[in-house]
Each structure stands twice: as structure tokens, then as C-alpha cells.
Amino acid sequence: MVAQLSGSPRGEEQLARAEGTLTSNIVAVWRSRAVLGLLVRRDLTVKYQQSVLGYLWSLLEPLMVAATYWFIFGFLYKSKGDLDGSPYLIYLVAGLFSWTWTSGVLSEATTALTGQARLITTIKVPRQVFPIGRVFGKFFEFLAALPVVVLIAGIFASLGEYHFTWNLLFLPVAIVIQAIFLIGVALVLSSSNVLLRDVERFIRVLNRVLLYSAPILYPFSKVEHSGMPRWLLRVYEANPLVGIAQLHHGAWLPAEFPSLIQIAVTLTECVIMFIIGWYYFRRVEPAVLKEL
Asked: Which residues contact 122 (CB under 8 A, 6 or more apart)?
């Protein structure tokens, strides 16, 4: 069997893939970082080249959603309690911008391979570069939105209703953990959608459900004091998006900062998702290339 595989280019490629390790594959992607950068710049340029407002469009949707929820629930969270008296608008914007990164990756990762089939078959680079490119493309949109959060927080600070703290130093930690998770998710979704095109349609439905499955619009304390069974609360907490959302909120609002145990659990889950995504992608890659 080994002799038969090594006798053809496809067989040699399969053997090399089987013998490869996670580390060597990551190193290969790192060596292709220049191509990754070009893909990200290309996607952002194509997206905004004929747009008058440019990247501001990426801010418009989460800002409008935040304004809507702030209008509806703002007075509810105006009193001291769930957010320890902190402005609900800061909570909303910080959560929604981080969620927009996740939501964007879920939506665009499904077409990371199917939408670039010709490029994938002509450029000799690790194919993981293409879905990872979608993750970093959405990351730069998230990064461009951070000044908006700073501006809103600064306005409330000038009114004496908010104070910047050293907790902001944990924002890079939240970003790194979220990136690890999203890379794993993107690898699974991009390859699965090639083999089963229903994945793209399913993600459209799942995207809306996931928004409410984590404390993005509502504080985690609401869930803790909801009276739900303890086992159900543990299931809820097991969602890595819960820990990621808490870290983003906790960076801006210290009262919302998660426990060290929750951070450790979230980091572990995200690393596991990364490893699963990487190995899954490698395993189905031959079938994916055949379909493309």
C-alpha cells in the first residue's frame, strides 16, 4: 500500500500529510505569512474599494444594534445592580464588537475555500492559509472598531460615570483566546462546507442563536441569578463564547471580569477547538481538493 501511494504524486502528498505534525503544519503556515497578509489585504480592499464610507460600514451594524438595545433596555440597567452601576452602553458596544468578529468569521469561513477554488489549486501554500485569512480579515475590522469603544467610554468618563482601569491590559488576552478559537472554527467550517453545502445555510441560522447563548446583550449575573438548575448553568458556562464575552466585558468593566477558573476553562476549550480544527482540516483535505 505504501509503495502504491508513493508511486503517484497524490500518494506522496497523502503520505507527507500523514507523517506531518501539528507543529510542522503551523510552521508551514507561518512561513506563508506573506501570502496570508496579501490575502487579507486583498479581501479588505475588494470589500471597501467602491464604498464611500469604507470600513465605517463595518461599524454601522453593531452600532445600530447597540443603539437599539440601549434604547430598549438602557433604563433597565441605569440603576445600580447587574452592572454595578456601570454604563450599559459600554457593556453593549464592547460585547457587540467582539461578537461581530465571531459572527463575521462564522459567515465568511464557510466560503473561504469554495469562493477561492481556482486560487487554491494554483498557489502552492498550506490551504489552512485561506480560512485563517478570513479570521484575520475580520480581526482587523474589529481592531478598527476599538476606537469607538474608547470614545464612548471616554464620554462617560468625562461625565463621571465611568473610570478606566488596569483591566484593559486583559483585552489582548481576550483577543488572543478568541483568535485561537475562531481559527479552529474556521478550519472546520471551511472544509465542511466544501463537502456539504448545507453547512453555509445552517450557519446563517446558528449565528442568531449564538448571539443569545452568551452574555453579550445581558450580564452574566442575570444568568447566575435566574434560578436555572445548576447542571444547566454548567452547560451554559461550558460554551467558550461565554468566557470570551466575559473577558471582553471585564476588560472595560471590572465588575464583569470572569474568575480565573472560568478563564482557564475557556482557554482550554479554545485550544482544544484549535487542535480539532487543524487535524480535521488535514484529514479531509484530500476529499476537499477533489471536490474543488
From this structure: none
Residue written as cell 510552521? 27
Which residues make Cβ contacts (< 8 Å) with residue 245, sequence separation at least 6? Answer: 95, 98, 99, 214, 215, 216
- Return all residues near 93 (Cβ < 8 A) that are at least 6 apart: 62, 63, 66, 148, 149, 152
SS3 153: helix
> Measured between alpha carbons, how far is 23 from 28 in angstroms, rounded to an integer?
9
Using one digit for the tens of pLDDT, what is the confidence trace for 174-213?
Answer: 999 999 999 999 999 999 998 888 888 888 888 888 988 9
Helix or strand (DSSP H, E) at 260: helix 260-291
* Domain membership flag for residue 4: no
Residue 63 in any domain: the answer is yes
Most distant CA pair in the chain: distance in Å?
75
CA neighbor of 183 nearest in space, from 98, 106, 95, 100: 106
Angle at 207 between CA 52 and CA 226, to 5 degrees: 125
Q: How many CB atoms lie within 10 A of CB 195?
A: 12
Give residue 215's Cα distance to chain centre: 15
Rounded Cα distance, 79 and 53, in Å: 37
Question: In angstroms, what is the C-alpha Rg of the chain?
Answer: 21
What global pTM score does this model have?
0.84
123 phi/psi in degrees, rounded to 5: -100, 130
Kindly report, residue by residue over 24-59, the tens digit of the pLDDT: 778 888 888 888 888 888 877 776 665 555 566 666
Chain-centre distance for alpha carbon 86: 26
Characterise 79 by phi-psi region: left (phi > 0), alpha (psi -120 to 50), beta (else): beta
Q: Is residue 29 part of a domain?
A: no
Residue 249 within a domain:
yes
Look-up of cell digits 474589529: 142
Domain around 94? 54-291
Q: For the chain, how many structural domains are there in total? A: 1
